[in-house]
Design goal:
alpha/beta; 34% helix; 222 residues; two-stranded antiparallel ribbon; 2 domains; 8 strands; binds zinc ion; Rossmann fold; globular
Length: 222
Amino acid sequence: MFEMLAAFGQGCAACAHPVETTRAGLEGRLCLRCRQDLPRGLASITSLPEFIDEGWCLGPYSGLLGGLLRSAKYGGREDVLLNLGELLADHAGARNAPAGLAVEQFDGLTTVPASLVRRLGRGFDPVELLSAKLQHALDAPLSPVLRRGGGASQAGQSREDRLANVRGVYTARTAVAGRWLLVDDVLTSGATASACALALRESGARSVSLLVVAAAGGVRSP
Ligand SMILES: [Zn+2]
């Protein structure tokens, strides 16, 4: 009873309007207006970061998804992140996935590692929560091959400033091969995704695709 009252008292997870529903999952945390904006499939990311071959998201960061991600990450709403993970898993799962995202095409699934500061500040790692749902739905084990830092800067080998900036930010713990799928919560400037993709490629990956909840750049709806 008290749990129910507390749930009703929280308001919409995206805009804080009153929520009048008893629905389960993410729908139950949204007001009527925000519920209409829930994505119905994965969108292609049209402005891809360097070293990323293909990318998909649930939608643009500017709308409902940005509101939900901010509420989840800065308001400590782990429940909302788990719901977003479920939604991502639903649309990326075997029955609904776009052709390029068929999970059997990938040799490995990995996430952008969180920095220790971000992890400690929040008490949880948003990307870890998202991918926990995802790996279950895709039946693909997550390989934590990437780590932050630890790589010596190879400035002497880089030809472009861009490359020099991202090289060595992330490194792979082991050698990898084939096609890899990188998972993150949001794509903004693309610098982090580029750095992770470069680390995977330098360790042997042939291609790197990206799956995020929301993208700040161009997206093409299904
Ligand atoms: Zn709302």
